[in-house]
Write a structure and sequence with these properties.
There is one protein chain. The protein is α/β, with parallel strands linked by helices. The protein has helices at residues 43-50, 84-89, 94-106, 114-124, 129-139, 154-168, 184-196, 208-214, 233-267, 277-290, 351-359, 393-398, 414-420, 425-428, 437-449, 467-479, 491-497, 517-539, 556-583, 590-618; strands at 3-14, 17-28, 32-36, 58-63, 69-72, 172-176, 200-204, 217-222, 225-229, 313-322, 325-334, 340-344, 366-371, 377-380, 403-407, 410-413, 455-459, 483-487, 500-505, 509-514. The strands form five sheets. The protein has a six-stranded mixed sheet, with helices on both faces. A six-stranded mixed sheet has the order 14-17-18-12-19-20, sandwiched between helices. Strands 2-1-4 form a three-stranded antiparallel sheet, with helices on one face. β10 and β11 (325-334) form a beta hairpin. α5 (129-139) runs antiparallel to α6 (154-168) and α19 (556-583) runs antiparallel to α20 (590-618). The longest helix has 35 residues, at 233-267. The radius of gyration is 31 Å and the shape is globular. 31% of the residues are buried.
Length: 621
């Protein structure tokens, strides 16, 4: 395989903090590689260094000559004055340039030769490129192609940038958290799209189903050392556990040997000659091995929840609209103690509105939310990161509470809790501005749990958290002695935690489905398959033959017409079948679907007429 990327001796420090040191790895053509590391280990910095947006302190990065490279940043830098389509067409891709030249030529630009532009379109197979652009943007739910980039939300900008990367089909793609700001349908579509792409892939993501289904190799940075696993996420979990166990065994052996060597060192006569120097040097090596810290920093979140009474929350026929848009429509539900609910639905369908109605941040237009007296909310908001950059990490938590109740007469100080959340005592005295995105999320989660809630509401809690933190958070939530509502696009996280699903549908309707997300998704897929079968059956029409003509003999012209009809019916049947397959594929946006539907109706009508005429002629003797 051709080595597309070679990283040699790469090191990067941030002040006194060593992010990574002497990294060496190669990514070859066709590989799909993911990077896993704790928050604050420098994942984004590594991607920026590889792409030249940041400079290393040591080492070098080499890409194979003449390959095309695209990089999806966590926070894309787009031209806010352009429309969505203009931003996509601003790419330097050869296909994009060909389309741009051709459109300039047909619009009368004398500087562009139309024949040359057409030949370039043929050579690059670029004629269907605009259709492809619209299909990808529509799959990512960007439907207003003329909207200015500056008018888009942060999530929409990320999706436009992602579309730009996919449309150009570069040789090497680098993705930093590509699933952030995507809903569940979009993530599943992106999974399938990346699986089919021939591009080489290097990405950072915390979505474990995504890792499992897309990647065939994983790089892990652990304690500033790089480990390589030639398999997907499931393989990584298995082999990483084996590595840790082996390291524990080696470390324990080293510790036993070190005790023996320590005794020898103490007894060694001062006049001993050079022959024993190797044992002294060996002792130093053993000492290093024996001092390896095997206690992986984990979040054992045994924080006591406030007592939750029998009455939790009763919701009676609540509705909420914004103008003509109804986002919650006549919803009723009674929460029981200790239940765990997941909420799914497209972006903008009203998920956050429902959470705000439950907590009382919003008042329903109709209906009532009756909250039990013992309920104490802990609300982790998607937009809750409002810390001042100049705030000290410890002071952020002390503003919530000085101590937290662990139950059984035990309590922790704010500093002890932060230490448990992987913030060293030194880091607690740093300013918030020095934290990575994931560390800020972890600090925010800490501030929510510090309140001792018994009804947790988590709105996209998995964004920017590393996989190790997510694993421990999942374990905590499974044991949490209270109610939990989760809005998340992380299917792995939802499957491990939730017991049933609130599913939003158009018009603000909310349905309650038993089971986790995968069970819900299987149900939806089966419903869609059933609907397609019904639609196809409805399209089949019974052909009613016309009455036989009085003359039952074929004339010369009739025979000629009959031969032509057989050929035309065969052609039309193939075109109708191809259109049916295209329209049921789900790859068309609403504009293309409408155009193809009109074409389908016309072809179907023509085919019916031809078949009737063929039937009429074939019945002649």
């Amino acid at each position: 395989m051709i080595p597309y990327l070679q990283v040699e001796g790469l090191s990067r420090n941030w002040g006194e903090l060593v992010l990574f040191d002497d990294l060496n790895f190669t990514i070859a053509q066709g590989q799909k590689v993911a990077l896993i590391a704790p928050n604050g280990a420098g994942k984004t910095t590594l991607l920026n260094t590889i792409t030249g947006k940041d400079l290393p302190d040591a080492g070098k990065v080499t890409f194979t000559n003449n390959i095309t490279i695209s990089y999806l940043l966590q926070e894309p830098d787009l031209n806010e004055h352009l429309t969505v389509m203009e931003e996509v067409y601003s790419s330097t891709s050869g296909v994009v340039a060909a389309v741009r030249n051709y459109e300039a030529a047909i619009n009368g630009d004398a500087s562009v030769d139309l024949q040359h532009a057409s030949e370039q379109m043929d050579r690059l197979n670029a004629w269907d490129f605009e259709v492809k652009i619209k299909q990808i943007l529509s799959k990512l739910k960007i439907n207003d192609f003329q909207q200015r980039v500056g008018q888009l939300s942060g999530g929409q900008k990320k999706r436009v940038a992602l579309a730009n990367v996919l449309i150009n089909e570069p040789d090497f793609i680098i993705l930093d958290e590509p699933t952030n700001h995507l809903d569940l349908d979009m993530i599943e579509w992106l999974e399938e799209y990346l699986q089919k792409m021939s591009s080489t892939l290097f990405m950072v993501t915390h979505d474990r189903y995504f890792l499992d289904r897309v990647c065939n190799e994983i790089l892990e940075i652990d304690q500033k050392t790089l480990f390589r696993y030639k398999g997907n996420y499931s393989y990584f979990v298995e082999k990483r556990a084996e590595r840790i166990e082996q390291l524990k065994a080696e470390t324990e052996k080293a510790r036993n040997l070190m005790r023996t060597e320590q005794e020898w060192i103490r007894r060694m006569p001062k006049a001993r000659g050079t022959k024993s120097k190797y044992r002294v040097e060996s002792f130093q090596e053993l000492k290093e091995k024996a001092s390896v810290n095997l206690s992986e920093q984990e979040l054992n979140l045994n924080i006591k929840a406030s007592r939750l009474g029998k009455k939790v929350i009763d919701i009676y026929n609540i509705s909420k609209s914004y103008g003509d848009l109804k986002v919650v429509n006549d919803f009723s539900y009674k929460f029981s103690r200790f239940e765990k609910v997941g909420i799914v639905g497209d972006n903008g369908t009203g998920k956050s509105t429902l959470l705000n109605l439950i907590t009382g941040s919003l008042t329903p237009d109709n209906g009532k939310v009756d909250v039990g007296e013992t309920v104490k909310f802990g609300y982790y908001r998607q937009d809750g990161l409002n810390f001042s950059p100049d705030e000290i990490v410890l002071e952020v938590i002390q503003e919530v509470a000085e101590y937290i109740d662990l139950g059984g007469g035990k309590q922790w100080s704010a500093s002890q809790l932060l230490n448990h959340f992987l913030f060293t005592y030194e880091a607690q005295n740093n300013k918030v501005e020095k934290l990575s995105g994931g560390e800020k999320r972890r600090l925010y989660l800490c501030s929510v749990l510090m309140q001792n809630p018994n009804f947790l509401i988590l709105d996209e809690p998995t964004n920017d958290l590393d996989i190790m933190t997510l694993t421990v958070l999942e374990d905590y939530l499974q044991r949490f002695n209270g109610c939990v509502i989760i809005v998340s696009h992380d299917r792995y996280f939802m499957d491990k935690i939730v017991e049933h699903i609130f599913a939003f549908s158009p018009g603000g309707y909310i349905k309650n489905f038993p089971g986790n997300y995968s069970i819900f998704r299987d149900y939806i897929d089966e419903q869609e398959r059933t609907e397609k079968i019904i639609q196809q059956q409805e399209k089949k029409q019974t052909v009613t033959p016309k009455p036989k003509p009085q003359s039952n003999k074929l004339t010369f012209n009739d025979k000629r017409e009959l031969e032509q009809l057989i050929s035309e019916i065969d052609r039309l049947t193939k075109e109708v079948s191809a259109l049916e397959e295209l329209m049921s594929s789900g790859d068309l946006d609403h504009v293309d679907l409408q155009e193809h539907s009109q074409k389908y109706d016309l072809l179907k009508s023509t085919l019916d007429e031809k078949e009737l005429r063929w039937l009429e002629l074939s019945e002649k003797e």
